[in-house]
Structure formats: structure tokens, C-alpha cells
Design brief:
The protein has about 300 residues and is mainly alpha-helical. It has ten helices and three strands; from the N terminus they run H-H-H-H-H-E-H-H-E-H-H-H-E.
Length: about 300
């Protein structure tokens, strides 16, 4: 009987990676469902537009957790296959391609309608292209410390992070009590400018930038692998410490600042490095060049 259980064990766990991948798709569809309720009369629903967008963003973050776990579960159960890779990309297209673009449309209705629609479509198409490039370029994602282009989950997280911060920003724009100190007044003034700017033009521009970075060849660090595996460099520990300090000082903006720091920090660093080298012929295509000896290869991670 014990031998029989040992033989059946792997079969029982074989379905786990697929269930995690499908959980990713369920979260993406849930994010679309809650975002679709924005701007319509909610009879018996009891949630306003801001809360619906907040829940949509949270579901995208939950989808990111499923996406992080499914590949590791497949390798743990020794059930990696082409079917799993294709299914994963299809689910990612929903959660990290369609859902963030739809949230953008619902969040910024006062932005130029045609331009807003064009940005949303461009983001979706770039996410799909990013996933397709991943399927043909990657080999073993678990062994890489760097990858080429902004991963689609990070791009989706950057867009969704503003939905998480917006309710807190909106709450700071209200009238302050007479006992409020200068820091409270400064925060209220900043939130009073940032909240309408975010809906008016800031989030569409951030989404457009993320779309371009997804199909770029900018070299990004694999944060999970570099922070939790092997030796830790000074820069990565400094990044972790800086993220913790930001989370304590600016609680309302901690999540979008961390995601934007990841999404836009690496392109800025690449531009500075190129300017320091004088834009010579040797760095014409740094991201396409082979990594130095002893350094892990660059992955086409999602």
C-alpha cells in the first residue's frame, strides 16, 4: 500500500501547476469584471467606482502570485511541458495584457478618448508580443538573474499600483482639521494635485511607457533570484533597504514608487551608462550582446 501511494503521489500533484495557472486567469477575469462595473449604476452592489478599481488592482497582484508559483510548482512536480508554457502565456495575456488596459480606460475617462483607446490597445499588443517573444527565447527561467525587456507582470503591477494608491490619495484631499500640522497640510496639497493629475494624464503616460519597455531590449534584473538566491550584491541590498524606507515614509505612494522604480530605473541606468561610454560602437546593442564570462544568460522572461 505504501508503494502504491508513492506512485500515485506525483500524479496527484501533476494537476497543481495547471490549477495555479488557471487561477491566474480567474484573477484576470475578475479584474475585468470589477473594472466593468465602473461608471454604471450599481443597484444592490454597494461599491463605488474607486473601490471597484481597487479590487481589480488587488486581483492583478494575486494573479502575479499565481504566475510566480505555477512554474515553480511545475518544476517541483516535474511536470514542465510545452502545454503548460502555452497555457501560462494565454492566462498572462488576460491578467497582464487585457486587464490593465481595460482598467486604464475605466480610470481615465476624461483623457482624450481616441488617444486613450490607442494607448490601451498598444499596451495589450505589446504585452502579447512580449509573451510571444518569451515563448521562443527563454529556456530555463529559474537559472537567470537578468532578462530582456520589462516583464509583463511588472508592467501590469506598475499600472495596478496606482489603483491601490488612489483611494488613499483621494482621502487626503478632503478638508483638514485645525490641529493638522505642516506635514499633513503639505501631504494634502500634494495629494490634491496628484490625484486629478493621475486620472487626467499621468497614468496613460505611465501605461504607454510600460508598453514600450515591454518590447524593448533593456536589461532588467531578476529581483527574486538575485535577492533570495546566491550572493547578494551591495546594489541589491541597497535597493531593498531603499524600498523599505520609502514604504515607511510615503505609505500612500510606496507601492507605485517601488514598481515605477523597477520599471523605469533600469532604462535610466542604461542611458546613463551609455552616455558615460560616449555612445561608442561597442555598446550599440548592449542587451543583445553575450553576457560576460561566468554571468548567467539573459532570459526572455515575461
Amino acid at each position: 500500500m505504501k508503494t502504491l501511494r508513492l506512485r500515485r503521489g506525483p500524479r496527484l500533484f501533476a494537476v497543481l501547476p495547471t490549477m495555479l495557472t488557471l487561477g491566474n486567469a480567474v484573477c484576470g477575469f475578475g479584474a475585468l469584471t470589477f473594472a466593468a462595473k465602473v461608471g454604471i449604476e450599481k443597484i444592490g452592489w454597494g461599491r463605488d467606482d474607486t473601490e471597484c478599481l481597487f479590487i481589480s488592482a488587488i486581483l492583478i497582484f494575486v494573479a502575479m502570485v499565481f504566475d510566480m508559483l505555477d512554474g515553480r510548482a511545475a518544476r517541483w512536480a516535474k511536470q514542465t511541458s510545452q502545454f503548460g508554457a502555452e497555457l501560462d502565456s494565454l492566462c498572462d495575456a488576460i491578467s497582464f495584457g487585457v486587464a490593465p488596459a481595460f482598467i486604464l480606460i475605466k480610470f481615465s475617462p476624461d483623457f482624450h478618448p481616441r488617444l486613450l483607446w490607442s494607448i490601451a490597445v498598444m499596451y495589450t499588443l505589446c504585452a502579447i508580443l512580449r509573451l510571444a517573444r518569451f515563448n521562443v527565447e527563454t529556456d530555463d527561467e529559474d537559472t537567470h538573474e537578468y532578462f530582456s525587456g520589462l516583464p509583463s507582470p511588472a508592467a501590469a503591477g506598475t499600472v495596478a499600483s496606482f489603483m491601490v494608491a488612489y483611494p488613499l490619495l483621494a482621502s487626503l484631499t478632503g478638508p483638514l482639521p485645525e490641529s493638522a500640522d505642516q506635514w499633513d497640510r503639505l501631504g494634502s496639497y500634494a495629494a490634491g494635485w496628484l490625484a486629478p493629475a493621475l486620472k487626467g494624464f499621468l497614468l496613460p503616460m505611465v501605461t504607454l511607457a510600460c508598453a514600450c519597455l515591454m518590447v524593448s531590449r533593456v536589461r532588467y534584473s531578476h529581483v527574486f533570484n538575485q535577492l533570495f538566491r546566491g550572493r547578494k550584491s551591495y546594489q541589491h541590498m541597497l535597493y531593498l533597504l531603499l524600498s523599505m524606507v520609502i514604504a515607511v515614509i510615503v505609505r500612500e505612494l510606496a507601492v507605485p514608487m517601488i514598481f515605477c522604480g523597477f520599471a523605469f530605473g533600469f532604462p535610466v541606468k542604461a542611458m546613463i551608462d551609455r552616455m558615460r561610454r560616449g555612445g561608442g560602437q561597442g555598446d550599440q546593442s548592449d542587451s543583445n550582446a553575450a553576457p560576460p564570462a561566468g554571468q548567467p544568460p539573459v532570459s526572455g522572461a515575461r
